[in-house]
């Protein structure tokens, strides 16, 4: 079995030197993230932040409860709206002697180090060291990623699992190892956050698409059956927790439940949020524009007046417009607040529809069309399909909060940019000869994510200093 330079996914160029370079870049990013977290923990910085509140009022108490009740932790009533994997892992660390809160936070930051190690290594194997660092920086500088690194929050442990599933989906392999690995990662992922069951769709889609350059004796139907079977344990795990809790979250977080610690009753929060897809696309537009330099092939096709390319971008814009039809004004009672929702609150609305979110949704849909044009067919379906599946799962949540969405967008844009770069030097350029070469855009492509990282770092520092 052999692969050429234009191979789909993250399997190309896997020489020993490429592997070493990838892991070295990932290690640099992981160590830098761990050092920043350790400094924050050591100085007990931002002890009154939202992340610190969530840690102290919920996740730390769940960890302590599990450690106290070990070896029979109560998986029905505990202080987290997520499945208990993160808290059980840290409860074991607590029992092993790491009972001090600062020590637990340092141990928990290793999940984020693992995320950055994997992300940096995967990117570097496709685009080289410096470009990989540029593409990974926005993730590292995100307020929500950094908060989960420095405080006891389960988000990054789950994002690590999401990343691995995406990488597996982008590099399908005809063998039992790939199927079992994908099933095991998905099971671990939903044990940390049940909402990410959507990632099973990436496994199914990857097996369905396979790789036309790899010969495999099994039919498409058999591949999909195998993929579905290995995801059954993850589906069963989520189903068992839903039955245990009597809902999608533990009883404490269901509507009408009284929290004796905070003294508050859970507000009605059911029925999902139809504004989430439009807000998701708005964030795609705001962040994705910083990665446009990597999507040179799509830009060239558009500027070369490729009618097919314009139809793809127009279709994305139309989808974005349709997704912005539900109410999108700033509304705390409707779960539409925090993050960039504040911008919507300061700009005009018409009939409870934010013009900012409407325009952002259209632009985000168009930008995903540009991403589609810049990737191979298989990669485009995996990346855009994963974003669509994630958005549907996120829309089932009443709260359309940015912290639930931002990391997924930054990870996906980084992966898409790396994939577009790898193909941009190959056959996709042949399909774009009619357009201008856009060499200047290509030369300064790293400036976009670096500037985005600086902006996100500024938001992180200013928010945590409040």
Question: Would you give an account of this structure?
Answer:
- The chain is an all-alpha fold.
- The chain has helices spanning 16-42, 50-69, 85-95, 101-127, 129-141, 143-150, 155-170, 176-192, 200-209, 220-245, 276-288, 296-303, 307-323, 341-346, 355-374, 377-395, 402-424, 427-430, 439-443, 447-465; strands at residues 258-259, 264-265, 349-350, 353-354.
- A two-stranded antiparallel sheet has the order 1-2. The protein has a two-stranded antiparallel ribbon with strand order 3-4.
- Helix 2 (50-69) packs across helix 3 (85-95) and helix 15 (355-374) packs antiparallel against helix 16 (377-395).
C-alpha termini separation: 56 Å
Roughly what fraction of the amino acids lie in strands? under 5%
H/E series, N to C? HHHHHHHHHHEEHHHHEEHHHHHH
Low-confidence spans: pLDDT under 50, at least 5 residues? 1-13, 427-432
Q: How big is the Rg? A: 22 Å
Work out the number of β strands. 4
User: Number of helix segments?
Assistant: 20
Question: What structural class should be given to the helix and strand makeup?
Answer: mainly alpha
Q: Report strand order across the widest sheet.
A: 1-2
Overall form: globular
What portion of residues is helical?
55-70%
The biggest sheet, with number of strands, parallel, antiparallel or mixed sense and barrel status, is: 2 strands, antiparallel
Q: What's the mean pLDDT score? A: 92
